[in-house]
Write a structure and sequence with these properties.
alpha/beta, 329 residues, four-stranded mixed sheet, elongated
Length: 329
Amino acid sequence: MDKDAMLIRPDAMQSALRTLTAEQGGLTALAEALQNGLGGTFAETLATIHGLEGRVIVSGVGKSGHIARKIAATLASTGTPAYFVHAAEANHGDLGMVTRHDAIICLSWSGEARELGGIISYARRFSIPLIAITAGATSALARESDIVLLLPRAEEACPHGLAPTTSSIMQLAMGDALAVALLETRGFTADDFRDFHPGGKLGASLTRVRDIMHTDERIPLVSSGSSMREAIVKISQKGFGCVGIVRSDGRLAGIITDGDLRRHIQSDLLAMRVDEVMTATPKTITADALAATALTIVNDAAITALMIVEDEKPVGIVHLHDLLRLGVA
């Protein structure tokens, strides 16, 4: 056992479990509230944000400020333009980031954070919709807000009841609930999501096959009835380790891979026709499929290249190396 691990008190695991149980209790209370009175103000919030010409400005201080920053990022990445403005910095010029076409969401568990005074006054002065996420039903923030998403009171996981723990989880969950509900209301698709997430494995997994496939003269193809000599030349020229066999009407009849060549190495291969060697009904995919789906097919079938077809006619080819370079693996 690690020496440092031995220094941890034996009841630390119980402490961790109590924390998770307390936070789970907060989420359960929040879900129950949404099925009761909170559901109406939640729907009103969705309607207000959905009808905006501008952005959602999310603000807070302390732990609520950190949660507010994450909520703004989640909204923005799921199709709802949003921006985080720190409540304290708002009092020193950052209010200029807020326009009259925006709406403001302020987070404060108590609803009494003094730093929110400036942004609250600004919202009232210019008739900017103000939405509160708070547990303080009679707080200064709740009194000044147009909509109050009133969170149910729940015990913090902190044994002293001081460190924001359960309360932070509940604020975050409310932000996620808003973001996902707005996403679904807007009909936000995987393609839209990819536009906002072009980098990393997530962006790669949302890439379509048509974005990476090789087309036109790069596709290794020979006609049905061609000699194996011609097929081998085509395999060597194109460098995909395979060649597609097409019928007279352009439909894909089969494929010959390096593996097929090895299986016929003992026969008079060069004297044969492609139809005698090819694998009929090969694995294919459409151009609109996700690159991640292409990788799954390649892995499951233990192949290195995949033909892309439309109306049974080959329109492209993708190689395992294309998927690896993309970062989808």
